[in-house]
Amino acid sequence: MRLTLKDVERLLDVSYRSVSDWEKGKFFPTIKVMPNVIEFLGYNPFGDCSALDNEEKIRMCRKLLGLNTKEAAKHLGVTSATISLWENGKVVPTKSNQKQLQSLFTSACHVGKP
């Protein structure tokens, strides 16, 4: 598949400059475009998230889904501060929150898979 930067720009709905900067290693894709990047690539460039500890897994899954902390918090019915506390290992999610997070993990681990 021979794609130009313009083709990739159109497919991912980002600017030409963004794609160019990613290729040069100047910047990484933003959280918002990560699901599109994974779909485009056909795989998760971060590898298997099941081997991560809970703090890392929460952060990685959130990013794979293209969510910032505020958006993830809204989906989970908590505050963005709570998400940050979980991701930094300062607070352990309640059993109820752990069930919701499991759903998030399952969704994120299937991003980019058929």
How far apart the termini lie comes to: 19 Å
- The percent range for helix content is 55-70%
Largest sheet: number of strands, sense, barrel closure? none
The helix/strand class is: mainly alpha
Strand residue content: under 5%
Query: H/E element string?
Result: HHHHHHH
Tell me how many strands there are.
0
Low-confidence stretches: none
Number of helices: 7
The general outline is: elongated
Question: Whole-number radius of gyration?
Answer: 16 Å
Average residue pLDDT = 83
SSE layout and pairings?
Blueprint: H1 5-12, H2 16-24, H3 34-41, H4 54-64, H5 69-76, H6 80-87, H7 95-109
Helix pairs in contact: 1-2, 4-7, 5-6
Short description:
The chain is mainly alpha-helical and 114 residues long. Helix content is 59%, strand content 0%. The protein has helices at 5-12, 16-24, 34-41, 54-64, 69-76, 80-87, 95-109.
Task: Summarize this structure as a short list of keywords or feature phrases.
about 110 residues, 7 helices
Characterise this structure:
The chain is mostly helical. Helix content is 59%, strand content 0%. The chain contains 7 helices and no strands. It has helices at residues 5-12, 16-24, 34-41, 54-64, 69-76, 80-87, 95-109. The longest helix has 15 residues, at 95-109. The model has no long low-confidence stretch (mean pLDDT 83).
